[in-house]
Structures are given as C-alpha cells and as structure tokens.
Amino acid sequence: MAHLNKVVRSVNAPGDLLCVDIFRRPAGSYGFAQYRRDPEDGRGWQPIGGDGTERFADEADATAAARAAVPWLDGLA
After folding, report:
1. Which pLDDT tens digit goes with each residue over 5-57?
2. Is residue 4 a contact partner of residue 25, using CB atoms and an 8 Å limit?
3. Does a structural domain hold residue 52?
4. For residue 73, what is the DSSP state?
5. Is 61 exposed, middle or buried (0-12, 13-18, 19+ CB in 10 A)?
6. Which domain range does residue 45 map to?
7. Do 22 and 9 contact (CB within 8 A), yes or no?
8. Are 67 and 74 in contact (CB under 8 A)?
9. Could you tell me if residue 1 is inside a domain?
10. How many of the other CB atoms lie within 10 Å of CB of 59?
11. Strand locations in 29-75 (E)
12. Which pLDDT score, from 0 to 100, does residue 51 have?
C-alpha cells in the first residue's frame, strides 16, 4: 500500500539521528511524526513519537504542536 501523506517539511536534529516530519494528508489536514535512525541498524528511520494521528488545519499549526512536543525541535524549525 502506498503512503499517501506528503511530507512538506523534514527537520533533522544535530547529528542526524532524530528527525520530525510535518506532512499533509490527502484530505488536507496536517500532522507530524518523530523518527530515530541508528546507523548500525540498516532498517532506516523508525517512528518514536508524534504518531501522526493528531490533525491540524495548516502547516504552521502542525509545526507549533511539534515544537511543543519535541524539545530539540524548538529553534530549528
């Protein structure tokens, strides 16, 4: 099954082991999710928070919620 959400912004933490994706759903709402990558693990990015179920009216609202939920993101996004 294809992933239908479109990532509109992806922000990596210093060191590139954590990232937050802000995405737009096909119906027009926005959300965010946080991921972790372990270099020694070849599986790639794994979800660790912000499961993407919250819905926001626009990218700015999703980004503000992500900043509030993910401490390292404030100041980078």
Report:
1. 999 999 999 999 999 999 999 999 999 999 999 888 878 888 887 667 899 99
2. yes
3. yes
4. G
5. middle
6. 6-73
7. yes
8. yes
9. no
10. 15
11. 30-36, 46-49
12. 65
Asked whether residue 11 is domain-assigned, the answer is: yes
In this predicted model, what pLDDT tens digit does every residue of 5-16 receive, in sequence order?
999 999 999 999
| Residue in this structure with the two tokens 């919250």, named with its chain if needed | 54
Residue 15 counted as domain residue: yes
Residue holding tokens 């372990």?
38
Q: Is the pLDDT of residue 1 over 80?
A: no
**Interatomic CA distance for residues 45 and 35, integer angstroms:** 6
Domain count, the chain: 1
CB 9 within 8 A of CB 19: no
Per-residue confidence at 58, pLDDT binned at 50, 70, 90?
very high
